[in-house]
Design a protein that fits this description.
The complex is a heterodimer of chains A (about 300) and B (about 240). Chain A is of the alpha/beta class and about 300 residues long. Chain A has helices spanning about 1-25, 45-50, 50-65, 75-80, 95-100, 135-145, 155-170, 185-195, 205-210, 250-260, 260-270, and strands spanning about 35-40, 65-70, 90, 105-120, 150, 180, 200, 215-220, 230-240, 270-275, 275, 280. Chain A folds into 2 domains: about 35-115 and about 235-290, D-Maltodextrin-Binding Protein, domain 2 (3-Layer(aba) Sandwich); about 115-230, Periplasmic binding protein-like II (D-Maltodextrin-Binding Protein, domain 2, 3-Layer(aba) Sandwich), CATH 3.40.190. The termini of chain A are close together. In chain B, helix 3 (about 65-75) packs across helix 5 (about 105-130) and helix 6 (about 135-145) packs antiparallel against helix 7 (about 150-160). The longest helix of chain B is centred in the N-terminal third of the chain and has 35 residues, at about 25-60. Classes of the chains: A alpha/beta (about 300), B mainly alpha (about 240).
Chain lengths: ~300, ~240
């Protein structure tokens, strides 16, 4: 196994050298990578907040390639990667990302950025959860009051987080007050306004749509001192070229490299909507962070 | 001729005040319209080329199971577009039978799915139109020494208004559906706001998802105006008798 890895490294090194030679001869202008297309599947939250347009424009300018971003929701984005129909996946559900890499579909996962989730609800706050410190208590209160709660119900990262919180709170959600919609974050926030109802939202989407909404934050996430359970970390992972030989792996790694570089992280840091920062970069650090490359709780014993 | 010019001018006038405080980048909307038209018109063109011979064939021949074929065509008019989208996605996906062509998230995949949606509509309506051409007309064409092709052409000429209605219905089905193009096309627009696979319908869906209902409605009005324009052009070409 080790020998094979060394061989791969050697081959990759040779290829890089050869490629470097080529581009050198062409003066860089006819470089092969120009005009290629990178397909990114991602969540609606990165797309709807407008962040992707910002970073992709910078990446396209630097590399002379097109990024085609398909906003799908975490579950579907990973599924598209599994089928080999995308080159790189940017999502926010660590457990699903880990499954993806464990199954061999994804390689070279990196922590990218984070924001947090917030519980939003109507002005009259029928469950009385405003300002609670623990989101599990808030969810229990919503269930006890049978106050209407709109769930994404779409196997997205936000949905996965919501289910984890219900689980943690020891509540089995169901009944008339619990509505699974199977819709994107924006649609669910609209429904929460129209109904009115509580819901769990990522702060980015909530802030970017706040002017259209009548619901406000009832329980804050960790960015504003709320519980750690509401943290919302985004990861980025390339589709394994060993499983799908057609994927554009080198461009995917360039994209991951760009986004996790100081420049890419700077764009994320500076991106604001209505004066508020939506995403907090976390890829550049002096400290080693081995956990980002492997599934959580992975040990070397697993091979 | 003069009428055509003034009609164009009116359309331009109608759009100019809209563009002044139009809440979208011009390039964004124009590229979306281009993609919508390219995908739907191409799909309908191919559909028509396939539908007409099928309608003629089924309409003019008697064979066992003809009733079943007609029922199948009519059922096809009601295919849910989401299901068509899923089936096409499986076909063009990397793992699917057409995987080698790299069609997923492309306009070509969208054309395939709209073709599947529009063909039964055009075939069904054309079939009804050609079968309603009086037998006498066909017999006369034969009697005057026409070949099978001549007879077919005479029949198409007689049934042309019905066929045009079928083509317009197919186009209406294609350009207004959102389910399949969203799945196989991926609703992609470049970072510079140029549409790659974003159509008017998927753009409307995107705005609605983000709660920007006014913007969604404006795009809806653009779609409606576009379909109206196409219908007007086709009606004019057809002599206004449809």
């Amino acid at each position: 196994m080790i020998q094979r890895r060394e061989l791969l490294v050697a081959t990759a090194g040779g290829a890089t050298a050869a490629l470097a030679g080529c581009t050198g001869d062409d003066g860089g202008e006819n470089a092969e990578i120009l005009d290629e297309t990178l397909t990114l599947t991602t969540t609606t939250s990165t797309y709807d907040t407008g962040l992707l347009d910002e970073v992709n424009a910078a990446f396209e300018k630097r590399y002379g390639v097109d990024v085609e971003a398909v906003a799908q929701g975490t579950g579907a984005a990973l599924e598209t990667g599994r089928a080999g129909d995308s080159d790189v996946v940017m999502v926010h559900a660590r457990s699903l990302e880990d499954e993806f890499t464990r199954e061999g579909y994804g390689v070279n996962r990196r922590d990218l950025m984070f924001n947090d989730f917030v519980v939003v609800g109507p002005e009259d706050d029928p469950a009385g959860i405003d300002g609670m410190d623990e989101v599990t208590e808030a969810f229990q209160a919503i269930a006890d009051a049978e106050a209407t709660f709109v769930s994404r119900g779409d196997n997205s990262g936000t949905h996965a987080k919501e289910l984890a919180i219900w689980d943690e709170a020891g509540v089995e959600p169901g009944g008339e007050w619990y509505r699974e919609t199977g819709s994107g974050m924006g649609e669910v926030l609209n429904q929460a306004t129209q109904t009115p109802a509580y819901t769990l939202a990522d702060r980015g989407t909530y802030l970017s749509q706040r002017s259209e909404l009548d619901v406000s934050i009832r329980v804050e996430g960790p960015i504003e001192g709320g519980p750690e359970l509401l943290a919302n970390p985004y990861g980025i992972v390339a589709v394994n070229p060993g499983v799908h030989e057609d994927v554009n792996y080198d461009l995917a790694m360039s994209y991951i490299g760009f986004l996790t570089s100081r420049r890419g992280q700077g764009i994320i840091e500076e991106y604001t909507v209505e004066g508020e920062q939506l995403f907090f970069p976390e890829a550049v650090s002096e400290e080693p962070n081995f956990q980002q490359y492997v599934p959580e709780e992975w040990t070397s014993d697993e091979g | 001729m003069i009428e055509t010019v003034s009609a164009t001018a009116t359309v331009a006038d109608g759009f100019t005040p809209l563009l002044v405080d139009f809440p979208f980048e011009r390039n964004y909307v124009e590229s979306i319209i281009r993609v919508s038209l390219y995908v739907s018109l191409t799909a309908v063109l191919i559909s028509t080329l396939v539908s007409l011979p099928v309608a003629m064939l089924v309409g003019f021949s008697e064979f066992p199971g003809k009733g079943f074929v007609v029922a199948l065509i009519n059922t096809g008019m009601g295919f849910p577009s989401v299901v068509v989208g899923l089936v096409v996605l499986f076909a063009v996906s990397n793992q699917g039978p057409l995987g080698t062509f790299d069609l997923v998230f492309t306009k070509e995949a969208m054309i395939i799915s709209q073709f599947v949606l529009a063909t039964p509509v055009i075939t069904g309506v054309s079939l009804a139109a050609v079968t309603s051409v009086e037998e006498g007309v066909r017999d006369a064409a034969y009697a005057m020494g026409g070949t099978r092709v001549d007879v077919a052409l005479v029949t198409i000429k007689e049934a042309r208004y019905g066929i045009v209605t079928g083509v317009l219905a197919g186009l209406g089905r294609a350009i207004s559906e959102v389910g399949s193009v969203l799945i196989v096309g991926g609703n992609i627009a470049g970072a510079d706001g140029t549409s790659v696979t974003r159509t008017l319908t998927t753009a409307i869906q995107l705005e609605a998802r983000q709660g920007r209902f006014e913007l969604a409605l404006i795009l809806g009005a653009v779609l409606l105006a576009l379909v109206l324009l196409i219908n007007a052009i086709v009606l004019r070409l057809g002599g206004g008798r449809v």
